[in-house]
Design a protein that fits this description.
68 residues; alpha+beta; Macrophage Migration Inhibitory Factor; two-stranded antiparallel ribbon; 4 strands; 4-OT; Tautomerase/MIF_sf; EC 5.3.2.-; isomerase; 4-OT-like_dom
Length: 68
Amino acid sequence: MPFVSIRITREGVTAEQKAQVIKEVTDTLERVLHKPPEWTHIVIEEVDTDNWGFGGRTTTAIRKEQAG
């Protein structure tokens, strides 16, 4: 039973886009690994940009700098 966890920042992602990701990941596992879709579980976790960081800074701070 495949379990796929996907983490993304919480901003501007629609329900339709998330549904497409779930469908396409499920299709890939079926095509490549021959896993039945009914066995495949996908979880999308959305994380606030204040809670996601790299390079010693939050994603919020990095994006503010890039925008300005």
